[in-house]
Specification:
With 103 residues, this protein is mostly beta strands. It has a domain at 13-81. Helix content is 0%, strand content 32%. It is built from no helices and 6 strands.
Length: 103
């Protein structure tokens, strides 16, 4: 846990990457329709988790997005041999914050 009186310098990191296979049950050949890398980062010394800044929240197979709490980056990926449009037909979702002034 972070001690505010003695802040950690975050000199060493731990990253976890999980690759999800999306939509393989819907294909005749058992191949997935898309892949997504789910990436989290934390300080290996104090355990503090890192947030991904500047990325919209949600899930897309077209571009990277983050979880609503910003701790997990969700990045679509494809094998080098796959067509450039691999995974583009799968719907995703996005989350937008609307403050009190936006109803």
């Amino acid at each position: 846990m972070t001690n505010p009186d003695r802040p950690c310098k975050h000199n060493d990191f731990a990253a976890n990457v999980a690759i999800g296979r999306i939509g393989e049950a819907e294909t005749d050949d058992g191949m997935p329709q898309a892949y997504v890398a789910e990436i989290t980062v934390s300080c290996a010394q104090c355990g503090e988790r890192f947030r991904w800044a500047g990325v919209r929240a949600g899930l897309s197979y077209h571009h990277p997005m983050v979880s609503p709490d910003e701790f997990e980056l969700r990045a679509p990926c494809r094998p080098a041999s796959a067509d450039p449009d691999f995974g583009l037909g799968i719907p995703g979702f996005s989350i937008a914050y609307r403050g009190p002034d936006h109803g």
